[in-house]
Specification:
By secondary structure, the protein is mainly β. It has strands at about 5, 20-25, 35-40, 45-50, 60, 70-75, 80-85, 90-100, 115, 120.
């Protein structure tokens, strides 16, 4: 069993940077794939970024590629999402999720555990 808690979300201005954290309980967390997803008001939950257990393999959605960076610190049971050049369209609740499957994936149903989310607001 893995429990995930996101933090770091807040209201920022367009162009600002922000780092989200996803901290997990469970000694097996380092073996899980971790993904970040986001859900804007009235929209479906979308994949943002994912990282493999070792941090070497990453995957990004086209909308954030070049602006967001996912990384992990397994000794701290934490995965980070560093977001640069934030835009109003980045406004959403951001969720982290853990997958016991072998490869980084953008498919939500492949993730076994989900956090409660942290809200990021970038006003236009």
């Amino acid at each position: 069993q893995v429990q995930l808690v996101e933090s770091g979300g807040r209201r920022v201005q367009a162009g600002d940077s922000l780092r989200l954290s996803c901290t997990a309980s469970g000694r097996t967390f380092p073996s899980y794939i971790v993904g970040w997803f986001r859900q804007a008001p009235g929209k479906e939950r979308l994949f943002v970024a994912g990282v493999d257990w070792g941090g070497a393999e990453t995957l990004y959605s086209d909308s954030v590629k070049g602006r967001f960076t996912i990384s992990r610190a397994n000794t701290k049971n934490t995965v980070y999402l560093h977001m640069d050049s934030l835009k109003p369209e980045d406004t959403a609740v951001y969720y982290c999720a853990a997958s016991a499957n072998g490869a980084v994936t953008s498919t939500p149903r492949m993730y076994n555990y989900w956090g409660q989310g942290t809200r990021v607001t970038v006003p236009s």
